Amino acid sequence: MQDVIFYVAAGETLGVVRDYANAKGAQPPTFVRGVEVRLRMRLFAGRDDPAPYPLEKLAAVARWQWAMDSDFNESTSVKLVGNSRNIQVSAISETVEGAECEFTEISIPMPDMNTAELLEWLGTERSKSGLHGELVGFDETGRQVFVLQIENFTVRNRITGAGNPTAIAPEYMTVPQIEALFTASMDVQLSEDGEEWTTVTPEGGAEAPQNYRWYRFRNSAVGDKWSAPVPLLVGPRGFAGTITIGEVTQEDTARVENTGDEHDAILNFALPKGDKGDAATIRVGSVATAPSGGQASVSNSGTIHDAVLDFSVPKGDKGDKGDKGDAATFTLGEVRTGQPGSNVEMTNTGTVHDAILNFTIPRGDKGEKGDRATVSVGGTTTGDPGSRATVENTGTEQNAVLSFTIPRGDRGECTYLRTAWAWDSTGAGFSLEPSSDRKYRAELLLTEPRDDLSEADFAGCVWQKCNGDDGANFDAVAVTDMETSIPVARRIVFRNATVEAGDDGEAVVTFSKAGAPGGVFNNTALLRRTLATGRSGGGSPGGGAGVTIGQDGFTGGAAQSDTTQSTWEA
């Protein structure tokens, strides 16, 4: 059985299918041919009003009738009818998506879903929309006191057999229709010649002229179609007859039996039960998200017996921003190796907010020995600033050739280095210009050029020593000319001589005076053994700064000197 629940705003004759909260429109249901249906139609009082339809407005309904057709032509046969005798009305409460809702529900059984009329209309189409339903409620007098129409139901056809279709016999009438015909009032017109007609009422029948010879009638519940004129034979006034509905039972063959008499009839009806339908299955197929504001839809991509329902649900409106939650943490706990072939396990030994996840990962099977792979670097390309670094393998899986694209870095900020000099590490004798007596230096980095620096700008800078101390004079020099030896000489004076640097640290002294022994002082071995490392002092008043002397003799260039006298002092 197809148990179909849908919601209808029933404030007007043409009902509108809505969602369960009566907040937006929805698609009318889809049926499957050949499978018994129970319609559970839940009525709202009006559109956009979640209040259920008032039960007191349905209290006057004594009998119901449900029929479905593809047109509004009364002369054509309907396609489906409901089991009107078993239509029920009730008030229900139900929790839908966490909300308690109340509805007025009308339950309509439709046991015969394989009529010949439906099959002729549906043909071989997979499914067809445009089937309309009409629910009519009659009071005890047969007057129609409730009418609700719902348009555009869809019927899904069958792939496998649904059994032999049964026709809705033209003479077939539902129990409510029969009861309504018998209890509805009759409209009667009389005529003397069959051309001009006069409407009469039962109340005025006794006073009507007795010269009428024709009459015609119609049931007030049928409409404006009159019967063919019937000759009226005037005779003695007969007894007023009554017709009462007795029992209505279910039997194999339809029949009507009068258990009263010819004046006061009591009619008992027997109606056959329809064929039992095949068992059906329903399962959910795909669920797609439709654009916001659209209508939800359901289509059956299966068969009428084995339905596969595909849903299209519109995206809901954006909800209000929720309260800020506590920040959660995830910590990796233990990672264990499980047995080969076992399942991966994860346990949380922390809390739902501060999780500590422990993993058990099964040991994999030992793989076959693979071929030896190689990796080499291909080209390296500079990418645009801000782009992502990429690595592309232009080789194979086993012999990879990796080509790199590395984005150019952002342009750095410019800095400016400024230097100052001082006498000592405290910054005393601050100056922006270097000098030979300022042997300490401090550096300052600026983000923009400045020419107005002062000692205050270098506050906090570290003063580092950058120049060595002046060297000391030699304490003693041994001098000899192979004849005269002076063990300790504090000054050696070369008269009429010039000094220049020779090879391998030699100091070459050249005497310009005639008769002076040439090359006497070329051998400076004695000087090498006794001189200490240091820087010589100046020479004569016209001499320069001297030269640098190491443990093994003269290692610097010749000092500037005049040709008169060059002097080393201890």
Query: What do we call the CATH topology of the domain at 2-166?
Result: Immunoglobulin-like
What fraction, in percent, of the residue positions are helical?
A: under 10%
- The span between the termini is 127 Å
**Residue fraction in strands:** 35-45%
Number of helices: 3
Largest sheet: 6 strands, mixed
The CATH class label of the domain at 2-166 is Mainly Beta
Rg result: 59 Å
CATH architecture of the domain at 2-166: Sandwich
Q: What characteristic shape results from the CA principal axes?
A: rod-shaped
Q: Could you tell me the mean pLDDT?
A: 79
Structural class: mainly beta
What ranges have pLDDT less than 50 throughout 5 or more consecutive residues?
514-570
Q: Give the total of beta strands.
A: 39
Task: Give an overview in words.
This protein has 570 residues and is mainly beta. Among the domains are: 2-166, Immunoglobulin-like (Sandwich); 329-361, no CATH class; 374-407, no CATH class; 416-465, no CATH class; 477-569, no CATH class. The chain is built from three helices and 39 strands. Strands 1, 2, 4, 5, 8 and 9 form a six-stranded mixed sheet that branches. The longest helix is centred in the first third of the chain and has 9 residues, at 175-183. Residues 514-570 have low confidence and may be disordered.
List strands and helices in order, with pairings.
Blueprint (H helix, E strand, L loop, with lengths): L1 E8 L6 E3 L11 E3 L4 E10 L2 E4 L10 E7 L10 E2 L6 E9 L2 E12 L5 H7 L4 E12 L5 E13 L18 H9 L2 E6 L6 E3 L13 E6 L10 E2 L10 E9 L4 E4 L5 E8 L9 E10 L6 E4 L5 E9 L14 E10 L6 E4 L5 E9 L11 E10 L6 E4 L5 E9 L8 E7 L17 E7 L17 E2 L11 E4 L4 E5 L1 E5 L1 E5 L5 E5 L13 H6 L3 E2 L12 E3 L2 E2 L10 E5 L1
Parallel strand pairs: 1-4, 3-11, 16-18, 19-21, 22-24, 25-27
Antiparallel strand pairs: 1-2, 4-5, 4-9, 6-7, 6-10, 8-9, 10-11, 12-13, 12-14, 14-15, 17-18, 20-21, 23-24, 26-27, 28-29, 29-30, 31-32, 33-39, 34-35, 36-37, 37-38
